[in-house]
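Self-study notes.
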Amino acid sequence: QPTWLRTREFRYQPGSVELRPSADGSMMLAVARWESIGVDSPEAWDRQAPYARRGRCSFVLQREDAGAWVCIHTHFSMDPDPVRPA
C-alpha cells in the first residue's frame, strides 16, 4: 500500500518520545506517538474529505563501535478506528 502518498502533515506528538536503552548500552528502543492527515487512496485527495489519523511507532537502534547509533528496525501502526468526518 502506498501509505506515504495517502499521508500529509505527518508529525510526532510533542512529549511522546521515550528512549529505552538496553542494560549493556549497545541498543536502544525509541517509541513515540504520531499524528497525520490522510485519505483512503493517493488519488482521493480531490474527492474525499481528509481525516485525522493517529498511531504509534518504534525504532530499534544499535550502537556501532565508533559510538554512532544506527536504526536497524522500524514499525509504524495506526490506532484502531481513526476518527473520520461524518
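Second protein, same conventions, sequence then structure:
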Amino acid sequence: LIERLTKINIAQNESNAAVTLKLISAALENYAKDNLGAYPVNFSLLAQTKLPYLDKDYLAKSPLKGYNYSCLRLEPSCYNCSASPTRCKLTGNTVYTITTGGSLISEICERKE
C-alpha cells in the first residue's frame, strides 16, 4: 500500500512540475513579447508587474509539491529553468528542464543519497 501511494504521489508531483515549468516558460515568453524580445534578468519581476505574468515567484516559494525550481540561466536573450525532485526516487523520478522557446526536456534523476 505504501509503495502504491508513493508511486501515485510521484506521478502527481512529476505532472505538476512539468506543468509548472510550462507555465514559467509561457510567462517568460509573454514578458519578452511585451519587452522588445528581452527576457527578465530577475525572475521575481514576473510576479511583481502591474499585470503579473505569474501568480507567484515559483523560485522563491520552492520547494513546491516535491520539486525544487531554479533558473540557472536568465538573461535578456535566453533562459534555462529546471525542476528537480527534492528527494530523487521519493518525491520524483524525473528532472525537467525548459529552455528558450519552450523546449521541455526530461531525464531520470540519479540517486545522490
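Instructor comment on the second fold: Helices lie at 2-34, 45-48.
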